[in-house]
Amino acid sequence: MAPAGPLAEITVVDLSRVLAGPYCTMVLADLGARVIKVEKPDGGDDARQFGPFVQGRSAYFASLNRGKESIALDLKAERDRNILHRLLARADVLVENFRPGTLDRLGLGWDDLHRRHPRLIYAAVSGFGRTGPYATRPAYDLVVQAMGGMMSLTGHPGTAPTRVGTSIGDITAGLFAAVGINAALVHRAVSGQGMLVDVAMLDGQVAILENAIARFGATGQSPGPLGARHPSIAPFDAFACADGYIVIAAGNDALFRTLCIAMGRSDLPDNPLFRSNESRTTHQAALKAELESVLQTNAAAHWLDVLAAAGVPAGPINGIDQVLADPHVQARTMVIRAAPRPGTDTLADADGPVMAGNPVKLSAFPDPAVRPQAPDLDADRDRILAELGWPPDPGS
Amino acid sequence: MAPAGPLAEITVVDLSRVLAGPYCTMVLADLGARVIKVEKPDGGDDARQFGPFVQGRSAYFASLNRGKESIALDLKAERDRNILHRLLARADVLVENFRPGTLDRLGLGWDDLHRRHPRLIYAAVSGFGRTGPYATRPAYDLVVQAMGGMMSLTGHPGTAPTRVGTSIGDITAGLFAAVGINAALVHRAVSGQGMLVDVAMLDGQVAILENAIARFGATGQSPGPLGARHPSIAPFDAFACADGYIVIAAGNDALFRTLCIAMGRSDLPDNPLFRSNESRTTHQAALKAELESVLQTNAAAHWLDVLAAAGVPAGPINGIDQVLADPHVQARTMVIRAAPRPGTDTLADADGPVMAGNPVKLSAFPDPAVRPQAPDLDADRDRILAELGWPPDPGS
Fold first, then answer.
1. B58 φ/ψ angles, rounded to the nearest 5 degrees
2. Which end of chain B, N or C, is less packed with Cβ atoms under 10 Å?
3. Closest to A224 in 3D by CA, of A161, A140, A143
């Protein structure tokens, strides 16, 4: 079921649920890994219950679990743990996002599994990681966005707190886990040994704070939110045209001059307030008023044409409908659909749930616009058990 | 100079500048890869000029380029291109984030390099990628956050557009590139061939839209910004206490009941408006008013203690100062400093720039709290040229 890709030789046993772990294994599956999703028999991955639903199936679950296989196992039952060990004996990677300690209590923790399956790479994604004082605390995306500083940088000054509009805490952790798993695979080719990859959602938030930490370190001041603008580049903001906003990012003097000429305001670069990026940043409110006084004389689409022709970085603030309809986004195969799984009665291709494509484009492999549909719970049980030779021959 | 890590056998030649490419190679360097930064002789990476400065060096540049080496080469000069080819002949990976076409015009594009160095993995990070109608357009983070839909989901309804407070467009692209590079390394062990990894910042934004695409696909409605709250979970929001905001994320009925009991409002779960998550989401404004009427009777710190004791996911909205001082963040080695490079007169350890640590924690390798300082421009020239046997022996 896995598509052609650089990880085609790799098998991932995926015990993870909801978002951070499944996002990691989605990335691996998109790169060709075989991902066998091991779900609890009673309902499976919680995300199967998350709306909205398309023809009775969660569209959210569908997008995160495309191209994976499913088998239901009760990890509290010895028989099913034995099946899991057979799976792990043939697998390269285990991914889980239980709270630290949960799998240890079932004899399925890193220490136990490393002893039994020394080549297995064990990736654990959790809210706070496996060490440190908060290790066993529960976390959701919102909690790590808040505790990790991202919310302190996002929003407009003076408004109520603002979350990044997608679950960047989960997604970033999933990406760091995918990086770590692949690096561990590279190393295993040399060492022959697996390793534990421990990724915390909170750590991932700290790791993407970017210039905020450097600014705090140099000045002792915690930066606050700035709406849409940049702390040290101007103009770099959202600007109001006659019928709505566009963004403009003129990151250096040459681009600023080009912008001003394109807008018919070649006087602005010679204004002492706006002569350097530093000065423009100091006087960004005055600069914004000057630019908007011109922009508001015409529509956003007009100005985007003018700025594109001049080569000034600018763009529309697209809603999701506009993103999915964008000809460039489509040309990059970033809007894809789920194909029916062989032997499953299901939707026609064109009716499958719409989802984001794989942003890792590789010259050596195709980038299909249709990916295999997410599995129903336990859909691959018979085939997987047959591969494992389960149940064992009573004579053996 | 590279620390111990799973990529210790890997050498990366890094032609990238500013953020997306350097973030990718920082992640690889943190995992042990040797990263040789090739910079233009005239000033090097533009980010060297970005404030704030610590003892004359950009703190921003320092955090992104720790653990790397530097050599200055003029890629327009044949002699320096010959040095680059000697470097590439011994390297595993090339990373660049020029606008598509720039390196091709110097004879250093993917086609040329793949012919000459067939095992080399070539990772190109750009605003819009190497294909599609916008391929050659300039982009900054703000532009892809706007065009990719992230800004349409972030902020409070009715306010001016809101950018995610860090350059998530660059950072996400850097992470996808790191995933792709490592996957290509895994594959090269089988195939013996390098490949092109083409990552667009815009594609990366589409890839992290998460449930927004599924919601649009199922309903035909483009979701808008929701402040700090979740579209389909309640309570999952920022709430005002007597002295400031905290976040609370009670993602299911059991947690909601626990929350209400801990707050002394065991009546709320039996209120018909709040009996199910779906109903709580519909009536989230009324629920928020009920919860805040209690929360505002005491301080944030009090409520965080109460909720932690009850096991309800909750947390403070930390500023950068609080993030860096957090005992858990420190225990996870997520606050690190740059160590002096051998042979460089520089800061004492404790005075080096503060930066985020490596969020990929690996059982097989140490996770040092001090990483080698970023190089000054061309700092490693002599040693690198000597390794390459340059200049060539005139007799050979």
1. -65, 125
2. C
3. A161
- H or E segment and range at residue A29: helix A20-30
Do residue A171 and residue B210 have CB atoms under 8 angstroms apart? yes
Supply the residues of A annotated as catalytic. 230
Domain total of chain B:
2
- Residues contacting A114, CB < 8 A, separation 6+: A120, A122, A194, A196
pLDDT in tens, A321-366: 999 999 999 999 999 998 876 665 555 555 678 999 999 999 999 9
| Chain B residue numbers touching A315 (CB-CB < 8 A) | 139, 143-144, 146-147
Same domain, residue pair A39 and A129: yes
Nearest-CB residue to B356 (from A206, A361, A364): A206
Q: What CATH number does the domain containing A298 carry?
A: 3.30.1540.10
With contacts defined as CB-CB under 8 Å, which chain A residues touch B111?
Answer: none
Positions in chain B short of pLDDT 70: 1-3, 341-351, 395-396
Which residues, given as ranges, of chain A have pLDDT below 50?
none
**CATH assignment at residue B186:** 3.40.50.10540
Residues B306 and B190 in one domain: no
Q: Are A44 and A74 in contact (CB under 8 A)?
A: no
From B318, B346, B362, give the residue that closes a domain.
B318
Answer whether A176 sits within 8 Å of B314, measured CB to CB: no
CB contact (8 A) between residue A356 and residue B207: yes
The residue in chain B having the minimum alpha-carbon distance to the alpha carbon of residue A235 is: B142
Residues B16, B37: Cα–Cα separation, whole Å: 8
Check whether residue A339 and residue A313 sit in a common domain: no
Query: At CB < 8 A and 24+ separation, what contacts does B379-387 make?
Result: B379/B69, B379/B70, B379/B341, B379/B344, B380/B36, B380/B69, B380/B70, B380/B71, B381/B70, B381/B71, B381/B72, B384/B36, B384/B69, B384/B71, B384/B87, B385/B71, B385/B83
Instruction: Give domain status of residue B22, yes or no.
Output: yes
Shared domain check, A333 and A301: no
Tell whether A214 is covered by a domain: no
Residues A268 and A197 in one domain: no
Domain limit, last residue, from A299, A318, A337? A318
All residues of chain B having their beta carbon less than 8 Å from the beta carbon of residue A360 are: 176-177, 179-180, 183, 197, 199
Residues 6+ apart with CB under 8 A from A89: A117
**Looking at the structure, do residues B81 and B202 belong to the same domain, yes or no?**
yes
Residue contact B213–A63, C-beta within 8 A? yes
Q: Are strands A121-126 and A244-249 parallel, antiparallel or unpaired?
A: unpaired
Structural domain of B375: 11-207+329-388
Is A99 part of any domain? yes
CA neighbours closer than 13 Å in the CB half-sphere of residue B141: 25
User: A217 and B329: CB-CB below 8 Å?
Assistant: no
3-state secondary structure of A131: coil
Query: Is residue B210 a contact partner of residue A59, using CB atoms and an 8 Å limit?
Result: no
B236 → chain A, closest CA residue: A142
**Closest CA in chain A for residue B197:** A362
**Contact (Cβ atoms closer than 8 angstroms) between residue A173 and residue A163:** no
Residues A202, A54 share a domain? yes
- Specify whether A182 is located in the same domain as A92: yes
pTM of the model: 0.97
Flag if A198 and B361 touch (Cβ within 8 Å).
yes
d(CA B266, CA B264): 6
B194 and B185 Cβ atoms separated by less than 8 Å: no
**Residue B380 carries which side chain, given as an amino acid letter?**
D
From the CA of A219, how many Å to the nearest CA of chain B? 8
**A with B: how many residue pairs have Cβ under 8 Å apart?**
521
Say if B221 falls within a structural domain.
no
